[in-house]
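Response to reviewer comment R2.3. The reviewers asked that we include at least one raw input/output pair. We reproduce the pair for Aspartate--tRNA(Asp/Asn) ligase here without editing.
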Amino acid sequence: MTRTHIGDLKEKIGQEVMICGWVDVRRDHGKLIFIDLRDASGKVQMVALPNHAEAHTATSAVRSEWVLEVTGKVNERPSRMINVDEPNGTVEIEILGIKVLNEANTPPFDVRSDGKEIGEESRLTHRYLDLRRPRMQKNIRNRSKATKFIRDEFTKRGFVEIETPLLSATTPEGSRDYVVPSRLDKGKFYSLPQSPQQYKQLLMVAGFEKYFQIARCMRDEDTRGDRQPEFTQLDMEMSFVAREEVMQVNEEILINLVQTLYPEKKIQEIPFPRISYKEAMEKYGVDKPDLRKDKEDPNLLAFEWVIDWPFFEKDEESGGWTFSHNPFSAPQPEHMTSLLAKKDIPNILTTQYDIVMNGNEIGGGSIRNHQPEALKAVFQIMGYDDERIERNFGHMLEALSAGAPPHGGIAWGFDRLMMLLENEPNIREVIAFAKTGEGRDLMMHAPSELDSKRLKELGISLTKGKS
Ligand code: ASP
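Raw output as returned:
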């Protein structure tokens, strides 16, 4: 007999079927033993009757989270037994035979609740169990739907999905890189990308014109609230565009995503309002104001674009200038002369646009400097000497000298977007295998020590004690 998915049982009334899944709960009433069996498609109530003696005995032995293969008859429930709250509430399986595919230890916590009452350390340590709970199943499945939707939307607009390397060189995105030692080239290190920024620009130089990627980014930041050392961006870039066109296509896809996958949500204002950084600070005192008219309504989404940001800000440590968002951004066209002349620095505005939803920054991007002199001027303003510019960005300057089209793009913080759409309090609830706030993977025990043989192979010696 081939397996029937539990979600399809309603079409099999009166038939004998074989179903597989996990014991959600078992209720022993002596003569009658009930088991709710769960698979990826749903849940169904099964009953073992004393007249099927063998099946009845087998059923009495099973426990929560055991994995079973059950043969049984699909019966319609009498009307007084119908459970209107369950998708399979009109049917019941009469158990004819049970095969235990695997037993399970008593789970360390209840996998049927929403999990909010359980300590997060325990949830992350046993994540494979935690992910069984309906809330996490929903979040991860909806995330998959959103990813597919985004892929389809960009693909149908002519964007090409391109993977970029994870083992790479350092990228300045305002954070620290994670580094990976090279065994073959002892003493040298790869950096894990903080974003595909440089690669996507190089893809524009290469003539792809429209690129996107669901990209993993890694940033070695100090523990800060709701951050993960690795996170996912929807990253895109396009050529021969001004700021307006990049904002337009992203706005359109965001609206489609919400309206298609979250029809219960209401977007407060379309087209998304725009607000300058200056106005945001003056009116709301923050650079990502929450513009919702009703903050009690979990289904109200207020998007806005924040534009006209200062390009440079003072670096607190060095006292010199640093970029406020992205060193690869272009200034607004009327500020290009100041940039090239390295004059009037605090007043240079960047083409940066941030997209904000309900007071959360969910993405940001800009038009880039596609002329090498302009990119070089940015680094000079930041106080880099020619040798450092050449060493770190020589490849970019060379590429921009190879016939680089004007281009620009954006990246969405995909985890944060999913968190907000799922009404979750933090991004760990929408990431299958999340790390703790301190960056630890409690399940896989990472980070962990390397044995001395591996260290030697890598040419690494550790200093004793903690620094
Ligand atoms: N690379 C930028 C970031 O990670 C996004 C962009 O400008 O496209 O924030």
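Residues 173, 195, 197, 326, 364-366, 409-411 surround aspartic acid (CB under 6 Å). The longest helix spans residues 134-156. Further pairs are available on request from the corresponding author.
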